[in-house]
């Protein structure tokens, strides 16, 4: 029973794939046809203008200038150590 069912399923599947591939791959019916109003020279001039004004630098790649501060590195480190000692900065499993 299982072998007959398997062979019948394969035969149906094989015939269905043959039907699906019987059509021509002609996509000309989906082509959009239009006529433009601009000349080739106008389009080329516009493309050249865009390439001249476009930046080659990726967006967001600039690094911000360092901020000016009157604090010394040692002072900031000392304040961080003091805040950690007083429990103002959570650490380990007690953090947020």
TrEMBL record:
The keyword Signal applies. Keywords: Signal. Residues 1-22 form the signal peptide. This is DUF4148 domain-containing protein. It comes from Ramlibacter montanisoli. The lineage of its organism: Bacteria, Pseudomonadati, Pseudomonadota, Betaproteobacteria, Burkholderiales.
């Amino acid at each position: 029973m299982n072998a007959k069912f398997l062979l019948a399923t394969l035969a149906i599947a094989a015939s269905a794939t043959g039907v699906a591939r019987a059509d021509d791959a002609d996509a000309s019916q989906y082509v959009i046809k239009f006529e433009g109003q601009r000349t080739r020279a106008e389009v080329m001039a516009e493309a050249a203008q865009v390439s001249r004004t476009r930046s080659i630098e990726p967006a967001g790649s600039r690094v911000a200038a360092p901020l000016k501060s009157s604090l010394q590195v040692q002072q900031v480190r000392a304040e961080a150590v003091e805040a950690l000692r007083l429990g103002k900065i959570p650490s380990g499993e007690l953090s947020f």
